[in-house]
């Protein structure tokens, strides 16, 4: 395959320039990777907090436990509901004693109501859906009161939305910077071979023939830069864990592959733009 | 074979009103040898660029074999250039390739089967008298030898016309004579030659047709002038 063979020529002919290109690509992707790591960990943290979203529906005093259990089965069938737990009066007292240890002597007798503790599925924990489920629960005859920390859920979702928008904007900015730096790096490599391109055109090479090796070269450099950036990001994460005692999550295999492919695609685009400009000039 | 019909070329970014070529018309017949002379800036290089379709005429048309500048598509230009041999004053060799690799390069980029390349490269290098220096890099060769490699590269695709833009411009008198001799031999084998040059000694020492350009216009064409005028120039 001549295009692949020609794509390998610069690696042999100018290894230092190739290493410099790959390193530059790696560092711009590393910045993007670090951002990605921060975004991933913020997302994970928010998800953990989100999992604590809980609705507590208190049963009216004197409701038989069988009726509460029947209501529990019915609530478990709501599409938004992940899990329903029946908490008896005794269990409620025990839980209160545990949660408020210093006042445990104050709690005496089963004066706390039994309840249904409802947890929602991921994707159904936003304030609107929570309110909808709360309305349904309030419609159940034996339910006396429903508590769900409305303000807390609203705040959590506001924070999540801000983090999402800021993350997307920052991510785009980092990606744009990476594309510009990688494009400039590949442009240098293309300019270093401007003479070769002009000779190719003079002897009758088609634009496609000229372009292909550069696209392959750009993709290889981008992918290698992506691998190097992944390694640097991992190293940075381990250093953070070691010196700042952070427990951080790293990209899973799927995200790692996406990152490397992202490098390859940026390399390909950078090459296509640079060679296209060069072909117009010669 | 090659025809310029009323060709005018204006570079839009150049000095306003300045035309590189003005209403240039001439024909180049099959197997003909033509010198293109004139002072610097006369339009010689522009004329050659129009021939290999690096530039398009502002008005008029250039016909090269079956291709017309009016309707040639960008993707057809490589096919045209494979039928032309082009040589420049500065050789345009790739420094990190040997002489034979430089010549082979012209075949590789046009998709010639690999098995056919070595034989054709050897034949082209032998034709220009460089068979023994096939493995030398350009920096190991003299200017004349480098230009010969450029000629071999131009010839290896068996062009019907060889376009040479000041091929002796960087060479001493002896090397220039050697290059001119090669051009004569190439022409004797049936390849037309269009050579832009400042070297009037070469022009005077041969009986080939010469076209002189000045300020973008043909001011003299020996094919249309009485014989005594040619000799008097």
Verbal overview:
The complex is a heterodimer of chains A (282) and B (233). With 282 residues, chain A is an alpha+beta fold. Chain A has 2 domains: 2-48 and 164-281, no CATH class; 54-147, Alpha-Beta Plaits, CATH 3.30.70.3040. Chain A has 9 helices and 4 strands, in the order H-H-E-H-E-H-E-H-E-H-H-H-H. Chain A has a 4-stranded antiparallel beta sheet. The longest helix of chain A has 43 residues, at 150-192. The model of chain A has no long low-confidence stretch (mean pLDDT 85). Chain B is of the alpha/beta class. Chain B has 2 domains: 1-83 and 160-233, 3-Layer(aba) Sandwich (Rossmann fold); 92-158, no CATH class. Chain B has 8 helices and 10 strands. Chain B has helices at 44-51, 77-81, 99-108, 117-127, 143-155, 173-188, 200-204, 227-232; strands at residues 2-9, 21-28, 33-37, 59-64, 67-68, 84-88, 161-165, 192-196, 209-214, 217-221. In chain B, helix 3 crosses helix 4 (117-127). The chains are: A alpha+beta (282), B alpha/beta (233).
In short:
The complex is a heterodimer of chains A (282) and B (233). Chain A is of the alpha+beta class.
* Major sheet details of chain A: 4 strands, antiparallel
CATH C-level name of the largest domain in chain B? Alpha Beta
- Order of strands in the sheet with the most strands of chain B? 6-7-8-3-9-10
Low-confidence stretches of chain A: none
Question: How many runs of DSSP E, i.e. beta strands of chain B?
Answer: 10
- Percent helix of chain A, as a range, is over 70%
Percent range for helical residues of chain B?
A: 25-40%
Which stretches of chain B are poorly predicted, pLDDT < 50 over at least 5 residues?
Answer: 227-233
Broad shape of chain A: elongated
Shape of chain B: globular
Q: Which superfamily, in CATH terms, is the homologous superfamily of the largest domain in chain B?
A: P-loop containing nucleotide triphosphate hydrolases
Widest beta sheet: strand line-up of chain A: 2-3-1-4
Count of individual beta strands of chain A: 4
Structural category of chain A: alpha+beta
Average of the residue pLDDT scores of chain A: 85
In terms of DSSP E residues, the strand content of chain B is: 15-25%
Number of helical runs of chain B?
A: 8
Total count of domains of chain B: 2
As for the CATH topology of the largest domain in chain B, it is Rossmann fold
